[in-house]
Amino acid sequence: MKAMKTLGSSTRMNSAPCQRQALNKHVCRTLPSLCAHRTVSKRTQTQQQSQRCCVSYVAMEDLLADPQPQEEPEQLQPQQLVVEDDLDQLLGVLPAGLGDSLISHPQRSALIEVVLDLGRRPEARFQGSTAELLREEPVTREDLDAAAAAVAPFGSDNRAGIAGTLHRISALRSRKGSVVGLTCRVGRAVSGHVDMIHDILDANLPILFLGRPGVGKTTAIREIARTLSDELRKRVVIVDTSNEIGGDGDVPHHAIGGARRMQVADASKQHHVMIEAVENHMPQVVIVDEIGTEAEATACRTIAERGVVLIGTAHGCFLENLIKNPTLTDLVGGVSSVTLGDEEARSRGTQKSVLERKGPPAFPIVIEMRDRGAWVAHDTAESVDALLVNKVPKVQLRLRDPVDGEVTMLECAYDQVEAQILAQMAQHGGEGSNSSSNTASHEEDTTLAAATAQLRSNSNSTSIDDLVTSVLRSGGGNSSSSRSSSSNGSHRSLQEALAGTDLDPMGWLERFKGLNEAEALQELAVLKYMGGQAGVLRPKASGGFSYGASSAVAASGSSKKSKKRATRASAKRS
Asked: Rounded to 5 degrees, what are φ and ψ at 19?
């Protein structure tokens, strides 16, 4: 059994029990605001010698002063990654002949969905944005009617399922209400991957998962439901919006373990079902997928105030998306505009009107799922407070090794996350951080993936030389990224970055050519650079609300206003 290895600011571990327990020590170190409410409880003297600990709820500094051993909560047990897709049942729904070509398809495990549109050729879509036509004849009305009749009736959200499976069938309708298209999405039950956050689950903390569609949010909370109910013996109730967590039919899929499932007849009434779950069924944990309305956000707040642990998902790539979303901002504490007095504004060094968090967040931990093997954990209160004043918060980056499955935790600044992920990918030969990429529905290529692919093909120093030379020549980006380059006032070109240091540009370039990819990425990260489209490096945002291109434009506008004010003040003095 390997021991957990600490490498600088990173922590690396396998799925062994002693490493799971040791990881709990690092939760308090990397999520500081939560440490004020947590402690590590002591075991007997013999157990202390084994250097194991578990998370509980008292101040961390009280640990050393408290000699009384406390009862230890049950720890998660290591699991082997197991994938179950029930794909044959989905293929049986397809029109005659279509499923036969996919049963023995070499990319069967990477199949995302099958699309049937009236009058068009049927198409199978695979991970990595690849697609394949299943036949030359277009889809007919009879094909659609036969496929729709083979599944359960469509609900108000135009979704249906296949009893006993996790597959989802979504309908496209004409203005008259007739079905003109079907999206048959593959649902897979993946067990054994909660080691990414097992320490947080041990600590009994509410968690909100953020991520774009298809990144694996539902898969993650389905496995969390099974783990909490079967391994930690919690009373878990799932509010299943569209039967995507527990599958279609009255009997829930075995992938959720012993968790109970409440189906939602009308998606617009989901918030009522959430409150009903708490009032009628005495759960310790409530799990809800796709929180998307103000009423549901209010229900989350109500559940949190009643002492029930809530685990949910929402669409969005970054924590800032929630802060700016007036519908869901209450999930992270809400935002209000506050007017400061003159003295307070001077002491803070800010304007008199500032944004502040209204209250405690319903979810003290937010996890951004950048990829299936790359998660960013936020201490919600601290990160929101920092972002509201345009500061860069500290976060915890959790990466799964694509080769051996080990999970590495890195404490880093929020604006360095993508550079760290890219460096990790390059360190492993550009294989990516997605340990289960061959088993799950996945998404189109991202900027990060495109940059990684380019770096993978440019593995020698000559290629890096060409890459850097192109950056120097272009001033920090291509046409697609030039809108957020130094011209907008919020970013610097590479020449400007080097000009702000004591480095000689040509000397730096010669030294840079001799670095391997991981070292080169770290060097560029220091200069506030990250991967851009098609392998061209573009400037990295400075953090806060200037994370995206649109925010960069806003930052540029405020910068121009500051320059105008400075010019007017100078004119008055003269």
From this structure: -75, -35
